[in-house]
Amino acid sequence: FSFSWQTTFQDGGEEVEDGAVYNVTLKKVQIQQAANKGARWLGGEGDQLPPEHTVRQYETSKIRAIKAGTLEKLVENLLTAFGDADFSYISIFLATYRAFASPRAVLELLLDRFGNLETSSHGEVANLNSLESEMVLRVEIASVLRAWLDQCSEDFREPPDYMCLLKLLDYLKNNMPNSDMESRVQNLLKQFQNQEVEAVDGFCSTSSSDLVDGEELEISNPEEFSSFQDHVVAEQLTYMDVMLFRRVVPYHCLGSIWSQRDKKENKNLAPSVRATITQFNAVTKCVISTILGTRELKIQQRAKIIEKWIHIAHECRILKNFSSLRAIISALQSNSIYRLKTTWMCVSKDILLMYEELSEIFSDHDNYLTSRELLMKEATSKFANLDSSEKENQKKSQKRLQLQKNKGVMQGTVPYLGTFLTDLIMLDTALQDYVEGGLINFEKRRREFEVIAQIKLLQSSCNSYCLIPDQKFIQWFKRQRHLTEEESYKLSREAEAVADTNILSPKSQKSMVKRISTLFLGTDVFTPPKEQPPKSSPVGGSSGESTDSASVSSCEFNHSETEDVCVTPVSSPEDPLKKGSISSDKGSISNKGSDSNKGSGSSKGSIFGPGLGSDSGSIPTRDLGSVLSSAPKVLPVYNRQSGGSCIIRVSMDGLHASVYKSILITNQDRIPDVTQRALLKHNLEPDAVEDYELVQVISEDKELVFPRDANVFYGMNSHVNFNFILRKKA
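== RGL1 protein ==
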């Protein structure tokens, strides 16, 4: 006999139980059966019978995926998910549960309530005999615990007491004595106890404590920097990025956790993410200090350093290191570097073309569609896919790539983490934590897992790198003294006086330059005026300041920007190889609203545009979970009202005016509701609603002040940016 299968899925609606809501999908499998013998005689080709001589059988199975539930139900579902054919549930839960529960709470429910057969309310085994029940339950518990230890062993790192790990060990000794699981937990406990509280290795730290005795921070020596070969610098930056990215704990990236980083009590929150950000900033500041740090440099010498950094960026591209690549490009597009118009005129035409092509990777068109697609295309590929419109650059790229292939060296992929942080923050803003009845919204966690799974995939790919640390370069990198904004701007003006606006300089991504005073971190953001000495940001970027300070990055004012980052347009220097006029600062500002609306309109109905939540640039990560999700495809977005909701950005007037928070509003929300949520987001006392007024920024000299009980959704001006200020009443 021969068989063929055809599978179709049908929405089966919802099932509601006490404390849980399930999405039901009916999986219908058509089995076509035919006898091989005589098939050809009956007119079939090969072993295939004509349709009228086949036997069709249908099998229908029900797939249940929990949509929302109490914590107890979500934990119980860990044991029943396989029976319900929700095969990705355990991975999704383990990757996201820290957003709504602690490891201790989950472990206690799993072991005390559901792991004890005598008191268990676990329905699946209730009707089995005692021995079978115990065997089934033991297998299910072991399966969950094994997955937990495999995927999230760091959840049990709780020095000095390790309460969860000891509780788990005690359970295993009583219920699964002498098992592999017991040995594994014992080894993990010893490993944790023999280590000091693990802090992420500070490759990027520039504090004197990381230096050899007698060494001091120094401004880069151009000759010493020039002695490092371009590919060596790129490899060492990649080595440092890989070590840090592999240590990123995925749940640290969740929007609900990351958005709490500004609270005083959370200064040590998400250290693995902060470390990657600090490294990104260190690379950016190293680029700036090597270009501006030596006053005696001639224009041609400074141009050569810029050329060297462009070559290093290109080597990072070959290594598929998008983090350092973006850090270098961001530095070259910073205010103090891009204004060096005479210096840029000395950069060769071929290298400028290379720079422009590398910059286009991070174009913000369609919510960074180019970089998203490129990242997913190369996530698991062995080598970079290098295309260049310029023949000479194409030849050089292919030659370098061929050398890599000849050595048999495979490359992983290091992403720009800010893209994922932005997506997770927007998801956290757009989707509710709880649904009707106070149930935990697990559909939100499924959506978040789509992003987390991409991070995990890229972390796995990093195992392909085979890079050896060069201590000479690493020590040089650590010794670099980072210039503050004021210092770099002052040195830039010393190198070249106030530039003639008619002199052309390199294109800078549609001239949108933003200071990431935390591109991911969300501390106060500062962008200096065009030709004025900058003022200090509250959290700055000098070597003696917070390591969470940020570098620069180019991006257009766009709804996808990460929370807490204020984007200020700077007048655009044009590409010296192309003709065109330069808009003034005034012109840029006056056009800000239309540009922004245009940007938000490119999302094509998804909060993430083509990057996440659409077919383009995404990867399948949830098996059947993607079929089961009933989350709305169109989510609220910034700068556009749709479906009776939208996302606005609210900043505090005064000291924190440059820091914004993303807030979801609906057509039912009035001023007190929105004001209270804004105060909570900014970690202020929510009861002080009466002391503040909400204002929409229409333009530089116009504001829309809302009456006390106004409906914000209907009262706001939807033709300008959805930017609001919370101001204390006089």
